[in-house]
Amino acid sequence: SILSDMGSVLIAYSGGADSTFLLKVASSVLGDRVVAVTASSETYPSRELAAARKNAGMLGVKHVVITTAELDDESFASNPPERCYYCKQELFSRLTAAARQYGLNCVADGSNHDDINDFRPGMRAAARFGVRSPLKEAALTKEEIRILSREMNLPTWDKPSQPCLSSRFPYGAAITREGLSRVELAEEFLAGLGIRQLRVRVHGDIARI
Prior knowledge:
single chain; alpha/beta; four-stranded parallel β-sheet; 9 helices
């Protein structure tokens, strides 16, 4: 009913368990009045973008890929504790513009009820731009989303969480294109060994897996 009341929606689509479940339900409720938009940048692993394309195609939803430039913002690149706010500010400004372009009433993300108790500065940016979080509004937890996703035969039902690559650097350590590339290559190598849930965290010259 939350989605139905929206009338039409642009979904910030990462390809993860939450946003895929949201996209599936939104598509079922609103049909072609749904557009999935994925933001591509150096902070987003290329294999995640490929998975997002595949899943959106499987769901038969219009999928658009845009490019964001959070690294060009020194407030983000300097990596303060509020880093996610600046990233989401860049993202949601682009998404609200895209929603106007496609004539859609709302922008929605995949935040769920569990996120309320987590440290997520990006939520302030969501509030600033009027971004809705239908899963959170419906008080759905991560566990419930996984159970429902499995019942719907969604391939993401047990997909591990995948925070952006910037989260691998301690606060205060500058985020650079070179550093992000090194992390992505390292994690891609380890994932190729069959390890599903991992992080390669950077501490100076040390990589902690």
